[in-house]
Design goal:
This is Peptidase A1 domain-containing protein. By secondary structure, the protein is an alpha+beta fold. It is built from 7 helices and 27 strands.
Length: about 425
C-alpha cells in the first residue's frame, strides 16, 4: 500500500514538474447561431449520425473531419495563419485533426462570406504547397487525396451536405503570441453547402491524429492543451502547452488510445452517479474493444448533448425521474429529449449527476456536474428544462460540450491523461 501511494506521488510530481513550461492561453468566442433550439438539436443529431458511420467503418483516421458547423454551441478561436499572420476565426473541434481555412482564389464558385478576410497565400512569405509525392500528402487518406499540377489536393463531404476541396500546404501559424512553424494545413478553394451559412473561416482540429496541430508541433507545446468552454455569456479559453496545475484541485482520468480511430480522445469512464447514488450498470458498459474499436467514451467539443449507450442512459434517466418524482413530466418539444419539466431553477434542488473515471496510477476521479450541465432550457417562455442527455445510436458514448461547460479540461496526449477541474471560465 505504501509503495502504491509513493508511486502515485512520484507520478503526480513528474506531471507537475513537466507542467511548468511556458503556455499560450487565448480567449474563445462563443457565437450561437439564429436557428431554433429544435433545429440545432437536429444538426447535433446529424453530427452524431456521421460519427456513428465513421466509427462503424473504422474511417475516423488521421483525416477525419467533423459533421456540421451549425449547432448550438460553436466555439471559435482566432488564429494567425501565414507570415505576416492573417487573422482567421476557426471552429475548435476535438473530433477532427486538420487545420483548414478558406483560401484565395476561390474556384469555381465565389468565396463564401466569412468573419475575416479570406486567407491569401500570395501575401504570406512562409506559404509552401505540398507536392503530390511529398510524404505529407500521404497523411490524407487515399480516397480523399488527389493531385493537381503537382500539388497535393483533398476533397471531403460533411454529413450536412457541405463539400470542401483544396490543396495541402505547409504554413506558419500564430497561436496567441507563439509562432508554430511548418504546420500542414488545408487551403480550401471550394466550399459549397450549409457551411457557408455559418461564416466560419475554417476548422482548428484538435484531435490526436497525424494532421492535428497537437501532433505536428511536437515539443514546442509539449503534446498538451487545455480548454474551458463558457456558457452563452462567456466564450471561455483555449491554451496550448504545459501549464501550472495544482495537485489539490484537479482530477485525472486515463486516456485510451484507439488503433482504429486514432483521432478521438477516449476516456476511461467506469460509472455514473445520480443524486449521490452509483447507478447499477454492468462494469463493461463503457469499455472499448481494442480489437474492433467498438464501444468506449469519446470526449468531443463538436457534439452538443452527451450521448450514452442505451442501458446507461435508461438507468440515468430513470434514477433522475425517481429523484424528481414531485415534478410532472412535460413535453419539451425537442425530439431527442424525453425527460422535461417546467421548473424554477432558483427554487428547485436538481439531482446531481457525476461521471466516475478510472485513473491508472491515481485515485479514481469523479466529476459532479452543475445544474446547467444537467438540465438545458428548451423554452424560456414556459421555463421548460430537459435532462440534457440522450441515448447513443450505437455501442459508443460521447461526452458533449454541454456537459463540459464550466469545467477546465486538460488533454495530455503524451502522458495519456485528461484532467478535470471545476471552476469559472
Amino acid at each position: 500500500m505504501l509503495i502504491h501511494v509513493a508511486f502515485q506521488a512520484l507520478l503526480l510530481n513528474i506531471l507537475i514538474v513537466s507542467f511548468t513550461t511556458i503556455a499560450t492561453r487565448f480567449p474563445l468566442i462563443h457565437r450561437p447561431d439564429n436557428y431554433s433550439f429544435e433545429a440545432r438539436m437536429k444538426h447535433d443529431a446529424m453530427r452524431v449520425a456521421s460519427l456513428t458511420r465513421l466509427l462503424a467503418a473504422n474511417e475516423a483516421g488521421d483525416d477525419h473531419f467533423s459533421t456540421d458547423l451549425q449547432h448550438l454551441s460553436d466555439y471559435f478561436a482566432e488564429v494567425g495563419v501565414g507570415t505576416p499572420p492573417q487573422n482567421q476565426t476557426l471552429v475548435i473541434d476535438t473530433g477532427s485533426d486538420m487545420l483548414w481555412v478558406q483560401c484565395q482564389p476561390c474556384d469555381p464558385v465565389p468565396c463564401y462570406e466569412q468573419f475575416d478576410p479570406v486567407f491569401d497565400p500570395t501575401k504570406s512569405t512562409s506559404f509552401a504547397d505540398v507536392g503530390c509525392d511529398d510524404l505529407n500528402c500521404y497523411k490524407v487518406k487515399e480516397s480523399n487525396r488527389g493531385c493537381d499540377t503537382s500539388r497535393c489536393t483533398y476533397k471531403y463531404m460533411y454529413g450536412d451536405g457541405t463539400d470542401i476541396s483544396g490543396t495541402m500546404a505547409i504554413e506558419n501559424i500564430t497561436i496567441g503570441n507563439t509562432i508554430v512553424p511548418n504546420i500542414i494545413i488545408g487551403c480550401t478553394h471550394t466550399a459549397q453547402g450549409l457551411l457557408i451559412e455559418n461564416q466560419a473561416d475554417g476548422i482548428l482540429g484538435l484531435g490526436s491524429g497525424a494532421l492535428s496541430v497537437m501532433s505536428q508541433s511536437g515539443g514546442l507545446i509539449g503534446g498538451m492543451f487545455s480548454y474551458c468552454l463558457g456558457d452563452s455569456t462567456t466564450g471561455g479559453w483555449l491554451e496550448f502547452g504545459r501549464t501550472n496545475v495544482s495537485r489539490d484541485n484537479i482530477q485525472w482520468a486515463s486516456l485510451i488510445h484507439s488503433i482504429q480511430n486514432p483521432s478521438f480522445y477516449y476516456i476511461d469512464l467506469v460509472g455514473l452517479s445520480v443524486g449521490g447514488e452509483v447507478l447499477d450498470i454492468p462494469g463493461d458498459t463503457f469499455q472499448m474493444n481494442q480489437e474492433t474499436g467498438e464501444g468506449g467514451v469519446i470526449l468531443d467539443t463538436g457534439t452538443v448533448v452527451t450521448r450514452l449507450v442505451e442501458n446507461a442512459y435508461v438507468a440515468l434517466r430513470d434514477k433522475f425521474k425517481e429523484k424528481m418524482v414531485n415534478y410532472a413530466i412535460v413535453d419539451g418539444g425537442v425530439s431527442i429529449f424525453d425527460t422535461c419539466y417546467n421548473l424554477n431553477l432558483n427554487t428547485t434542488q436538481v439531482p446531481t449527476v457525476s461521471f466516475n473515471f478510472l485513473t491508472h496510477g491515481f485515485n479514481p476521479a469523479s466529476i459532479t456536474l452543475e445544474d446547467r450541465n444537467v438540465l438545458c432550457e428548451v423554452d424560456f417562455t414556459t421555463s421548460t428544462y430537459c435532462l440534457a442527455f440522450a441515448p447513443s445510436p450505437k455501442s459508443f458514448s460521447i461526452i458533449g460540450n454541454m456537459q463540459q461547460q464550466g469545467i477546465q479540461i486538460t488533454i495530455d496526449a503524451v502522458g495519456e491523461y485528461v484532467g478535470f477541474r471545476s471552476g469559472p471560465c
